[in-house]
Amino acid sequence: MKPLFLAFCALLSSHHLFAMDVSYTDSAIVIDGVAEQTWQQATWHDMPHLMDGSLPDSKQDFSGRYRLLWDKNYLYLQAEITDDKLIDTHADPTVNYWDDDCLEVFIDSDASGGNHQFNHTAFAYHIGLDNQAADYGPDKQAHLYTDHLKSQWRRSSEAPHNIIWEVAIKLYPDNYQEGQQNSPLVLTGDQVIGFMLAYCDNDGSDVREHFMGSHEVEPLNGSRNRGFIDASVFGKITLKL
């Protein structure tokens, strides 16, 4: 009975794992907040999981979905976000950026997992409405890593509370060194990458009310807000040719 029990537990655990294939594009995506034809080859995925705060009151308060593509230079992300209030109250993009509306992209280039809060074995890019990207560095201070990506969002002309947010992200190896010249990786087929996506939603208070993500995170001491610390909670994507 023991092997059967262990197999059953493994099956239950695998139900919570987040893994998907990402298609290759031979046409570089223009990062402009416009859903060009190339995106039709990518599959939409929802962002329904609560990571911190409370659930949104309605789909107009917040709802989101996203899709991914890649080429040798970038992992491409397109998110469609419904948010009835866009809030950006911190002029300094390295101060309390998680309490403004922002798109948070978690990347672990070799899917090795582990603690990355104050090192660069993985990144938690908090991309603000000003398209600047912040994360913590080894000195335990927040820094901008906007040069790691291209970001642009645009309101929908048909649905004013909807925005299309596009990002092209360079990936870096585990030995990334703060303040040094670091070369991004050349992406290849069958490469496995740790990935998670979230959105911080502020409706006008001092702190964000909702923090919604792409997949479920198992709570630790009651908290699901673990992505900025532990890359082991990321899902995994596989780049496919």
Gist?
With about 240 residues, the chain is mostly beta strands. It contains one helix and 14 strands; from the N terminus they run αββββββββββββββ.
Keywords:
14-stranded mixed β-sheet, 1 helix, mainly beta, 6% helix, single chain, 241 residues, Immunoglobulin-like, disordered N terminus, globular
CATH class: Mainly Beta
Instruction: Please give the domain count.
Output: 1
Structural class: mainly beta
CA radius of gyration is 18 Å
Strand and helix order: HEEEEEEEEEEEEEE
Architecture (CATH level 2) name: Sandwich
Report strand %.
25-35%
The average pLDDT value, as a whole number, equals 92
Please bin the fraction of helical residues.
under 10%
User: Uncertain runs with pLDDT below 50, 5 residues or more?
Assistant: 1-16
The span between the termini is 42 Å
Helix segment count? 1
Number of strands: 14
| Major beta-sheet overview | 14 strands, mixed
Q: According to CATH, what is the topology? A: Immunoglobulin-like
Shape: globular
Question: Would you give an account of this structure?
Answer:
By secondary structure, the chain is mainly beta. The protein has one helix and 14 strands. The protein has a single domain (18-240), classed as Sandwich (Immunoglobulin-like). A hairpin with an 8-residue loop joins strand 12 and strand 13. It is globular.
